Amino acid sequence: MDNSSSNSLRSSSGPLKKQIEAQRLQSQSPQTKNLPAFYRNVEEALDARRATQSLFSILQNNWQTSRAVDFCSNDYLSWNTTGLIRTAFLAELGAHPGFSVAAGGSRVMEGNYAYIEDVEREIAEWHGTKAGLIVNSAFDANVMVWSALPRPGDVIVYDNLVHASTHEGMERSLAIQKTGFDHNDTKAFRRTLSSILESSPMVKQGRRSILVAVESVYSMEGDVCPLLELLEIADELSEGLGNIQFVVDETHSAGLFGPDGAGLVCELGLEKDIAVRLHTYSKAMGACGGIILGNDTIKSALVNFARASIYSASPSLPFVAAIRAGHKLLGTPEAREAKRIQQLARTFFESLTSHPLWPKARESGILAVPLASGWKERPFLTHIVTVWTRQNYLYWMLFHFLFASFFVLPVKHPVVPIGESRLRVTFHAENTVEQVEGFVQQLFVWVQEVVDIEEGKSQHKATGAAREVYAWMKKEGLTGYGMV
Ligand SMILES: Cc1ncc(COP(=O)(O)O)c(C=O)c1O
């Protein structure tokens, strides 16, 4: 174990303890009672989060400040860890010494400039499409797409696990109907489309359209969209009218899938079949911002109907330079690390499923790794895996990994439904095979502790790291986090 990280975790000013302390209820405290009514009411709302230990806090990240293993950040290609993107960014900026720090307006009101247009053209061409619109984030991109593109009377069909930003956009859309289908379920997709076509003559005749929302890789599951199959179903049912179109959010495949990281759509050769693609630069590509890719009609509709194009400042040159720097890196040999990540994922599944405790852990329900089933047959192994245990053990498992210096992310409500909390583990180009094997080894050290407790072979009621956290919590008068 790396002492610097475990000490900082264990210290009372460490992020873990700060996070736990932040869950102390506030609305009934004497300080809060003396606040003006408005603030008291807000604290009451925050208390609803605290009561379920789901209040978020903005804290120092241990994986950035210690030598702990990063199995949680978005820096999938490790361009920030290695400094590759920084060097490329500075070189790109250096090539434009007279740059303006601000764009000076919204895209349609004095905020346009030649550089952003060049980069958009370059990226769109590289992705095999006509036009691109660079925006401040993929979150914004989804809000823009879904609030702007569906016309009155159109219908949105979405995979039930699409990102919060798609829901945010859909809420603002003019679509007459929004219908979800079971995650990655092609039969459910067919049923949903058929029932809409049956009940909506306007759609069936092609006077209105269906827009389909999917993601190439699902961020909280780590699985891949069966895009080709969905597209075939849509083609068959639309009978050549072109009234069923797809929007593919490539946030978690950008930089990782396809030729030089161009994404799943390019990997499958579907550039001409997908109406809209969204890429982010805030994950594997090591920067910030997003791009919406489509044809000129799509771009024009976004510029005119998405309020952010009109009422929010255009991304500035330094912001766009970081994006271009990443794009230039994608084709270089030192940046072709996506394959390494696949290898790490393979190591993970191999070590997991060959461990002698795996069958018992799985059958007893102590452990579940949904992506472990059929992993050898899948053409893509992604950089995201989720590890599940019984809900009351989630924090025991989290504390164990944190104390063993593996930083993983607990995913809880409101990000996922209540009762579906899990640990999310992400692999990065700079992670090593030894780290992945060490992680699996720790996983089974923890499983063994749980087995011993459940079978009455241990005198303890909780696993070691959990006992340490609970001893401190009890001293501080804190509860929750699966405390026994
Ligand atoms: C599927 C998906 N779309 C969009 C976003 C938003 O990305 P950004 O960080 O660029 O706003 C995320 C962020 O996690 C995501 O997972």
What is the CA-CA span between the terminal residues?
26 Å
Oligomer: single chain
Overall strand count:
12
Indicate the percent of residues in helices: 40-55%
**Helix- and strand-based class?**
alpha/beta
Fraction of residues in β-strands: 5-15%
CATH class of the largest domain: Alpha Beta
CATH topology of the largest domain: Aspartate Aminotransferase, domain 2
Question: Can you tell me the residue ranges where pLDDT is under 50 for at least 5 consecutive residues?
Answer: none
Give me the Rg, rounded. 24 Å
Name given to the CATH homologous superfamily of the largest domain: Type I PLP-dependent aspartate aminotransferase-like (Major domain)
| Average of the residue pLDDT scores | 94
Instruction: Please give the CATH architecture of the largest domain.
Output: 3-Layer(aba) Sandwich
Spatial ordering of strands, largest sheet: 2-8-7-6-5-3-4
Largest sheet: 7 strands, mixed
**Number of folding domains?**
2
Count of DSSP H/I helices = 22
Please state the overall shape, judged from the principal axes of the Cα atoms.
globular
Query: Ions, cofactors, ligands: which are bound?
Result: pyridoxal-5'-phosphate
